[in-house]
Amino acid sequence: MAEQEVAPRYFGSIDEIQTRFAEQAYVADRMLATTMFLASALGKPVFLEGEPGVGKTEIAKVMADVLGAELIRLQCYEGLDSSAALYEWNYTRQLLEVRLQEARGVERERIGRNLFSEEFLLQRPLLKAIRSGAAQAPVLLIDEVDRSDEEFEAFLLEVLSDFQITIPEIGTLRAERPPLVVLTSNRTREVHDALKRRCLYYWIDYPSFEKEVKILRTRLPQIELRLAGQICRFMELLRQQDFYKKPGIAETIDWARALLALGLAELDAATTNATLGCILKYKGDIEKLRQLGLDGIVTMALMPGHDPSAAPAVFG
What we know:
Layout: H1 14-23, H2 30-42, E1 46-50, H3 56-67, E2 71-75, H4 82-85, E3 87-89, H5 91-103, E4 121-123, H6 125-130, E5 139-143, H7 150-162, E6 164-167, E7 171-174, E8 180-185, H8 193-197, E9 200-204, H9 209-219, H10 225-239, H11 249-261, H12 269-274, H13 283-301, H14 311-314
Parallel strand pairs: 1-8, 1-9, 2-5, 5-8
Antiparallel strand pairs: 3-4, 6-7
Helix pairs in contact: 1-2, 9-10, 9-11, 10-13
C-alpha cells in the first residue's frame, strides 16, 4: 500500500489566517482561525454548524479566495442522490456518437465501444473536486448537508474517507491533491456522528455586539460608527425575541446597505418600519415585531451603551 501523502500546509500560522481573512473583509476569531489552520494542515474536512445567515458558507468562499483556489459547491437538498453529486453519463452525446459511427461505416460489432469513457462523463461537484488537475487543490463546499437524506450522508462518508471514487466502466479515480472540504449545516436535523467524527467541528454563533460592529464596518467601510452601533444594537434586541427566523449577520449587512442607500445617518422608527423586509423574512415575524412595539425597540437601540439582554424584560 502506497504511503499516504502528507497534506500540504497552506498557512504559516493562525495569525496569518486571521490577517488574510481580514484582507477579504471577513472577521475570523481565534478559535475559527485555529480550526481552519488545522484543517489545512491535517487535510481534514471542517464541519460548520450554526443558525442561517451567520457566515458559514462565506468561510468557504473566503478560503478559496485566500488560497487562489477554485470553489466547487455542492448544494444539498432532500432527494439528492449520487448521480447529481458525483457523475452522470452524457446520454445525448453517446447517442450522437453511435449515429456518427454508423454514418462513418464503422463495423457493427465495434460501434459504441468507446461510449463509457471519460470523454462522455459529466462530472458533478464531488467528482470534479477529486479530479481537479489544478496546481492548487480546490475548496469543496458541501452546503446545508442537513437537508440531504441519511442515505446520501452515508455515501458522502465513503467519498470523504479516501477521496476516491469507483466508476464501474472506468475504474477507481483518486484525488492527486485532496480538496479542502467545508461542510455546513443549519441543524434542521442531526447529522450522523460518523460524519462529524471525520471532521473538525466549529459552531458559529451570533456575534457579540462589538464583533458585529467590526464586521459591519469591515464590510461597509463607508458607514459611520454611530449608525453601525445603532444597527447592531437593534439587531441584538431582535435576537432576544422568539421569532420564527431570527436575523443573522447577512441580514445586518443587507439592512445596513439599504439604510446607506436611503441616505440615513441615524435610525428612526419610520425608516425601520419601511425596511423590515431586509431583516425579517416571514409575515408573522414582522407582525410580531410591530406588536412588541417597534418604536420602543428603535428608541432602545439609539441609547449608547444599552444592554440588549434587557430586552425580554421590556418586550415580549
